[in-house]
Design goal:
Elements lengths: L6 E8 H6 L24 E8 L2 E8 L6 H24 L17 H10 L6 E5 L3 H12 L7 E9 L4 H14 L5 E7 L4 E8 L5 E6 L5 H18 L9 E9 L2 E9 L5 H19 L13 H8 L3 H11 L24 H9 L16 H14 L3 H17 L3 E8 L18 E8 L6 H14 L1 H5 L8
Parallel strand pairs: 1-2, 8-9
Antiparallel strand pairs: 2-3, 4-7, 5-10, 6-7, 9-10, 11-12
Helix pairs in contact: 5-7, 12-13
Length: 479
């Protein structure tokens, strides 16, 4: 049976945008025949299309020994009429309608996409649908399992001196939200026929969430207590991943030209790297609008391109690499809980660590401890790292590994290390808004009598060996 297709459709693309952004122009001279008349076509009927000067041109080439001219002309006429019918239908719609080919997520039928559009109509009009990154899947899972947990609630605050125009800043925040699809994204679980699939949905428009309150009439002490209470209330409120704007800004005017800002967002839409990008862009736009100037905004790369990049990675190779990396490691690496920690915890057995950790409360309560090293210690660390030709990060990971070995009474421990996860082969990735970080396993394995220098060197060698995998394929690894 001959399965060779008899018709070939080739769309060469839209050349207008490429020509507008380059010094190359189309020649006014005839281009002649693109191929010899003696060329044997792979298919007896070929349709090639391209757009130039805003016009779609279709060229049909055919084998005259297979098709009669009148039949090809009829085919061309029917093709043109069909295209005009499609255009007429699309132009008559009050709003654009997505088809499965318009979204990045593959596997949705037209009926499923229509069902998804209907289910989310109250949130807004869909622009795109795509899969989650592995880290996003983990965050979504824990957020659904513990909806009241504040584990992925991020909140930053700062004070501003000077004048402030709320209306202008709101315009700036709206423009920021419209430019970056990660800020117009919500998360939804949908039945695709292969079980429930977590999806991230990008909406064409999503209002930014900005609130402003003037508290100048309050005494200073009362102001501070009031703002602190509202910050805690904001954290307790959290985010509804399915409907909310997943970034919100609160501003309190505390004095004539003094303002207190609280910037809250869910970690699933962006990492810490993004906060400076977001604030830098929105305030840059704000100051430009104040001066009645057009904001100078650099072109952006949508977060969906990162998801596409992930889908192209070799998942099997990543799984094989990390499986080999963790081969032979079966136990858990644990720390004693705060309720049972004692002075002799370093010499306690691994069983003690297991029992004490299991007794910890399941509720996540965020706390932070800051430790400052004096210049003497800092200089000593840098000197040791330089002498042994390792990085400060390797030194710190080795120290942490040794501590865990002592707590667990085991020379083989594993802990997580957060990496930025921004692949350099995506143009403009350093300015993209979205969640790129990933947590990869770091294994500290040593002989019982190994020196710290040996542990450091081994850790450095492992880091170098896994560097390529960490930068690319590990994004697809889930354990």
């Amino acid at each position: 049976m001959n399965l060779q297709p008899e018709i070939s459709f080739n769309y060469l693309g839209q050349f207008d945008q490429d020509l507008e952004q380059s010094d190359i122009v189309l020649s006014s001279h005839t281009d002649g025949e693109p191929m010899s008349g003696y060329t044997v076509l792979e298919q007896p009927l070929n349709v090639n299309g391209m757009i130039t000067a805003g016009v779609l041109t279709l060229e049909i080439r055919y084998d005259s020994q297979v098709y009669h001219q009148q039949n090809v002309e009829k085919f061309a006429r029917l093709l043109r009429e069909s295209l005009q019918e499609v255009i007429k239908h699309c132009a008559s719609q009050e709003r654009s309608e997505l088809t499965p080919s318009d979204v990045l997520f593959k596997g949705l039928s037209l009926e499923q996409l229509e069902q998804l559009t209907e289910q989310t109509a109250s949130v807004g009009e869909l622009e795109n649908v795509y899969a989650l990154s592995p880290m996003q899947k983990g965050m979504l899972f824990h957020s659904l399992m513990e909806p009241d947990s504040g584990a992925y609630f991020q909140q930053a605050s700062f004070d501003q001196k000077g004048s402030f125009d709320v209306a202008v800043f709101r315009k700036s925040l709206d423009l920021l939200t419209q430019r970056h699809e990660a800020l117009r994204t919500n998360f939804h679980r949908f039945e695709t026929g292969h079980g429930q699939e977590p999806l991230q949905l990008v909406f064409r428009h999503k209002d930014s969430d900005l609130s402003f309150k003037d508290v100048r009439g309050m005494p200073k002490a009362e102001q501070q207590a009031y703002i602190q209470a509202l910050k805690q209330e904001d954290q307790a409120r959290g985010f509804d991943l399915g409907t909310d704007a997943l970034m919100r800004v609160q501003v309190w005017q505390t004095d004539e030209e003094t303002y207190h800002w609280v910037w809250s967002f869910h970690h699933i839409i962006m990492d810490g790297w993004c906060l400076s990008l977001v604030t830098g862009e929105v305030f840059g736009t704000y100051f430009a609008l104040l001066e009645q100037k057009q904001p100078e905004l650099a072109p952006i790369t949508p977060y969906g391109q990162y998801i596409e990049w992930l889908e192209r990675q070799d998942e099997r190779a990543a799984k094989e690499y990390w499986s080999n990396y963790l081969a032979g490691f079966e136990q858990q690496t644990l720390l004693p809980g705060s309720d049972t920690a004692s002075k002799d915890h370093v010499t306690d057995s691994r069983e003690h660590a297991v029992s004490s950790t299991a007794s910890e409360a399941s509720e996540y309560v965020s706390e932070k401890v800051t430790v400052d090293l004096d210049p003497t210690w800092s200089e000593a660390m840098y000197r040791i790292a330089k002498q042994q030709q390792v990085t400060i990060n390797t030194l710190m990971q080795s120290v942490w590994g040794v501590i865990l070995q002592q707590y667990n009474n085991n020379e083989d421990v594993v802990f997580g290390s957060v990496v930025s996860g921004r692949p350099t082969d995506i143009a403009g990735v350093e300015n993209m808004i979205g969640l790129f970080i990933n947590t990869i396993p770091v294994r500290i394995q040593s002989e019982r009598n190994a020196t710290f220098v040996e542990i450091m060197r081994n850790t450095q060698e492992q880091a170098l060996a896994s560097g390529y995998m960490t930068a690319s394929r590990c994004m697809k690894f889930r354990r």
